[in-house]
Design brief:
This is F-box domain-containing protein. This protein is an alpha/beta fold. The protein is built from 18 helices and 18 strands.
Length: about 475
């Protein structure tokens, strides 16, 4: 064995490099949820005694609640699988087979001091049913816990208090009920070192009850000066623009305008009433309520049919959010023809130099004549939804200039294909497929130009077919 592996610091760095891995799964609010991935560390721990102790500490640094509960004696619980959810991920069901006693927690007490980050991922919602039973043993068991990432909702939300201690610096909690608001109000006293609060609200109440709940949550945050850095709203009964406007108007009244880093909103997309399309349209005045959050880096606002705004409003948004890294303003059906144009990309290039991912609809039938001196050097992913497009080569040329490092270009058809909704086609924008094919040509031109410096002949054939209107009809 090499002598460098006798240096504890070097071995620890190797383990830390492997411990950075996270499994990302789609969350209920639409955002990806990350949970620890320890497969590589487990293999390393078995390789040699030199690595085992360091890998052991890294493995237990970040764990899920189900990891901890599986340390109970094997005769005390039964762990069953309930099919596949969200792709390949499993829904666990943990059931106790007998009454627990104090000695059953000896093994957990051995590992507990090593745990610094606890994840309560939603794929173990059935496992959370044992929380009320084991909660009497949990307080004070995790003296070095620094971060709690809690996604269990409903009756399990108050049980998070079993893990809270003065050493906490990060806490991500759901705010779906009054007990959660009570927890918010007590956090400054319980966690004096708190620097990162992420707040997820899953609004299932009637629309007329929306504003009081949101205002109560926001008021608690501002009154106690909580460092809320992320706010996510998962609203299964909220889709009409008036209700969305009330929620967006409530957020700035309580959350610090300088501390918020992430904002996410997911409305109800089913069922969709085509006769009420104007009621689904997200108004620009609603988004303007969020412009006060000057330091946001990640914004995700989904809508059913689109956003009613223009290039001037987009420019004001880009100017208000100079630290943006990811912006997703996608619509699910894309039936609203956008009033924004390709000029909005110039606004992002001027005011948001850190942008790496952008999803926004715009009218690409007209190419800006003026050439901006700014470009989106870091932009790698561009989602265009059902953006209208006429001539593909000029658009490709414009994108090559404004986003020279663009790698992926997605359309509304791509997003829905990944979602797998069979009923989407009858409600979606009528020209979504035709526009999607044109954007595929734009992507092919960009990739061919970047890879070989030339455009293959078949692309020119497709362009000629478009010019002859052979592919212009909705598919």
């Amino acid at each position: 064995m090499h002598r460098c592996l006798q240096v504890a610091e070097i071995v620890n760095l190797v383990c830390l490099e492997l411990s950075d891995g996270m499994v990302r799964i789609p969350g209920r609010s639409g955002d990806d949820v990350s949970i620890p991935k320890h497969g590589d560390l487990a293999v390393l721990a078995r390789t040699s005694p030199v690595f085992s102790s360091h890998a052991f500490r890294c493995i237990w640094n970040s764990v899920t609640f189900i990891n901890i509960m599986r340390c109970l004696p094997s005769d005390s619980f039964k762990l069953a699988l309930h099919g596949i959810r969200y792709g390949r991920y499993i829904d666990w069901d943990m059931q106790l087979l007998r009454d627990l006693n104090d000695s059953d927690f000896d093994r957990i007490r051995f590992y507990a001091p090593l745990i610094q980050h606890l994840f309560s991922d939603f794929i173990c919602t059935r496992g959370a049913t044992i929380l009320p039973t084991v909660s009497p043993w949990l307080p004070g068991m995790f003296p070095n816990l620094q971060g709690i990432h809690w996604t269990h909702v409903g009756e399990y939300s108050p049980l998070i208090e079993n893990f809270i201690g003065p050493q906490l610096t990060t806490i991500h909690i759901p705010g779906t009920c009054r007990p959660s608001l009570t927890l918010l109000s007590s956090l400054p006293l319980l966690c004096t070192r708190l620097t990162d609060v992420s707040y997820l609200t899953r609004i299932t109440s009637r629309p007329q009850e929306l504003q009081p709940l949101a205002v109560s949550a926001a008021s608690e945050c501002v009154a106690k000066q909580l460092p809320v850095v992320a706010f996510a709203a998962d609203c299964p009964r909220l889709s009409f623009s008036d209700d969305v406007h009330r929620l967006f108007s409530a957020a700035p009244t309580g959350i610090s305008h300088l501390k918020l880093k992430k904002f996410s909103f997911s409305p109800d997309l089913y069922p969709f009433d085509r006769d009420r399309q104007p009621d689904y349209l997200l108004q620009c005045t609603s988004l303007e309520r969020l412009f006060c959050f000057a330091n946001v880096t990640n914004v995700r606002v989904l809508s059913a049919v689109g956003i009613d705004w223009d290039d001037a409003t987009v420019t004001e948004m880009a100017r208000s959010w100079p630290h943006l890294e990811r912006l997703n303003l996608s619509s699910f059906y894309g039936t609203r023809a956008p009033r924004t144009t390709l000029r909005c990309l110039e606004a992002f290039a001027q005011f948001c130099p850190r942008l790496t991912s952008l999803h926004i609809a715009f009218d690409a039938t007209t190419i800006p004549t003026s050439t901006s001196q700014f470009s989106l050097e870091k932009l790698e992913t561009l989602g265009v939804d059902a953006s209208p497009i006429a001539r593909t080569p000029p658009v490709a040329q414009f994108l090559a200039r404004i986003a020279p490092n663009l790698k992926d270009l997605t359309t509304l058809v791509d997003s829905v294909a990944a979602d797998g909704d069979p009923d989407w086609r009858k409600d979606a924008a009528p020209h979504a497929f035709a526009y999607g094919l044109r954007w595929r040509i734009v992507e092919a031109i960009l990739k061919s130009s970047f890879d070989t410096g030339i455009v293959p002949q078949f692309i020119f054939i497709l362009i000629a077919l478009y010019q002859l209107n052979a592919l212009d009809a909705p598919q």
